[in-house]
Design brief:
Blueprint (H helix, E strand, L loop, with lengths): L1 E8 L5 E8 L15 E6 L16 H7 L7 E4 L2 E4 L2 E8 L2 E6 L13 H14 L10 E8 L2 E6 L6 H5 L25 E7 L3 E6 L10 E7 L4 H9 L5 E3 L15 E16 L9 H9 L3 H9 L3 E3 L21 H10 L7 E7 L6 H13 L4 E7 L1 H9 L5 E7 L5 H8 L12 H12 L6 H15 L2 E2 L2 E10 L2 E2 L15 E2 L1
Parallel strand pairs: 3-12, 3-13, 16-17, 16-18
Antiparallel strand pairs: 1-2, 4-5, 6-7, 7-9, 8-9, 10-11, 11-12, 13-20, 14-18, 14-19, 14-20, 15-20, 21-22
Length: 504
């Protein structure tokens, strides 16, 4: 049965869309038997626009989906790096890493997994020049020493290589570069792709030969329901089993039910509003600082998020390794006006701000509150809420004045965010400061874990003072699951794994 959901987006931008959701038997109905008959339906807040993890390596929705299918060498678990496709690693010298691979692993099509697959996936990722490529800037050689060994050489010590490799997902060398491979990718992971249509549906099936034991779930479906109220109704009606990123003003709808369990967990997720420093007037840091001072963030964050957010104290969330702790900008409209006048804009100016539809909890309300505060100092901001695919295209091309979004420090290490986004070579938002570059690259190359936080403190302060963007809030993660679901864990990355989840 096909059900049509008509979505009317309210607020500063009026949107209308029709979304078709595959609604098979309600998820609340118990499966007829265990094991392979178990079906779980997950309605993420953001749906993957692609499964190409090398091209969209920094996208939360893409990573959440692909990690069910493909796997990295290592993973973060409980704040530590743990083996996945690599079983061990060592540094025979400061500029060399040697990884031993897990023996006997096969891709879901039966092809043996070897070191050449790791190399091919790394090379494709590098060739596409995606957003994570800067993490490997000092790698000079990434080679298969033999079928079970990978040797990585660097031009200087690279203390962040392990955390970076948590996001390099491995496909078969003979196929990973083929046209159309990522429409139905093959991996070593717990699930295989049955069907995928970007922004529409993703249906996965258990991989019965998975090296770590076949999942109890026979099917895992990612269900696309763009509107928050629609996702909550689907959970309440038993049409889906798991929701994440429930907006604070909707939490009451999922709490207090005998059939639904609600939980909050620490998160590496935060909001930022970047300025495009390539464009006037944002090439003047006084303007950027003025716009930050114009915002009553303490009041806005409390009103919109309650206990699910705090005013940010750094360009990364406080739970991240190496996160500095800085003083938030004061709410001072008078100072904001003085800075604008000094920059040559005594009467303000007109600009725009874009954000992705359903791109974070209460994102539209947050945008409206910021726009309202800016209007009080004479700055008119045109709101541009965009469908995610269009937003991604414009974001990558720097086709924007300001960009509001959430971000996740995917590896749990400050380097992933700071040295990936804010070095001059990144060219992500027009900002470039050689002093920041040196601090961040020194931190990346340091193998002294005690020294790295001091470097991030100094770099973070420079980014803060230069107001490269506005950092409104650090977010907590939350989830709501039906009582028939067992084993679901929401990690700080916000990207759950379903290999060990069961339904009764």
């Amino acid at each position: 049965m096909l059900r049509k959901r008509f979505v009317a987006a309210l607020g500063v931008v009026a949107l209308a869309s029709v979304v078709t959701v595959a609604a098979c038997s309600p998820a609340s109905e118990p499966s007829s038997s265990g094991g392979g008959d178990q079906v779980l339906r997950y309605a993420p807040a953001m749906f993957p626009v692609s499964l190409d993890t090398h091209k969209y390596a920094g996208e939360e929705a893409v990573q959440t989906a692909i990690q069910q299918i493909m796997e990295p060498l290592v993973r973060v678990d409980g704040g530590k790096i743990v083996p996945v496709l690599a079983t061990s690693w060592e540094n025979p010298d400061p500029n060399t890493w040697v990884f031993k691979l897990r023996p006997g692993v096969k891709f879901s099509d039966g092809t043996p997994f070897t070191a050449k697959d790791v190399v091919a996936s790394y090379q494709r990722h590098q060739k596409l020049d995606g957003p994570l490529v800067p993490l490997y800037s000092t790698v000079t050689s990434f080679a298969a020493t033999d079928d079970q060994t990978i040797t990585v050489k660097t031009s200087k010590p690279l203390g962040t290589l392990l955390s970076s490799l948590t996001l390099l997902f491995i496909g078969p060398a003979d196929e990973v570069n083929a046209d159309g491979f990522f429409t139905k990718p093959i991996g070593t992971g717990p699930f295989t792709v049955s069907a995928f249509k970007p922004d529409e549906k993703l249906e996965l099936a258990a991989n019965p030969t998975y090296w770590d034991g076949a999942p109890k779930l026979g099917k895992l479906e990612f269900v696309n329901i763009p509107e928050v109220s629609g996702r909550i109704t689907a959970l309440q009606n038993g049409e889906v089993d798991v929701l994440t990123q429930i907006p604070p003003d909707q939490v009451g709808s999922v709490k207090g039910s005998d059939s639904i369990t609600y939980a909050t967990t620490p998160s590496w997720t935060y909001y930022f509003d970047w300025f495009n420093s390539n464009r006037e007037p944002f090439n003047d840091k006084r303007v950027r600082q003025a716009m930050w001072h114009a915002l009553n963030l303490e009041g806005t964050v409390k009103d919109l998020f309650g206990e699910l957010a705090t005013v940010a104290q750094a360009p990364v969330a406080q739970g991240v390794i190496g996160a500095p702790k800085l003083s938030p900008y004061s709410y001072d409209p008078a100072k904001a006006k003085q800075l604008l006048a000094a920059a040559g804009y005594p009467n303000g100016f007109t600009t725009s701000m874009q954000w992705p539809l359903e791109g974070g909890p209460n994102i539209r309300a947050l945008a409206q509150a910021m726009i309202s505060d800016w209007a009080k100092i004479g700055i008119t901001v045109k709101p541009l809420e965009k469908e995610r695919a269009q937003w991604l295209e414009d974001f990558g091309k720097l086709n924007w004045d300001m960009n509001l979004q959430t971000n996740v420090t995917g590896t749990g290490d400050a380097d992933y965010t700071l040295a990936r986004l804010y070095v001059c070579a990144a060219k992500r938002n027009g900002y470039c400061n050689p002093a920041v570059d040196k601090l961040l690259l020194d931190a990346r190359s340091s193998v002294d874990q005690a020294a790295r936080p001091k470097l991030y403190q100094e770099a973070g302060q420079l980014l803060w003072d230069d107001a490269v963007g506005i950092f409104p809030a650090d977010l907590a993660s939350n989830s709501a699951i039906r009582s028939r679901v067992q084993g679901f864990v929401m990690p700080p990355s916000g990207r759950p794994l379903f290999a060990k989840v069961t339904v009764s």
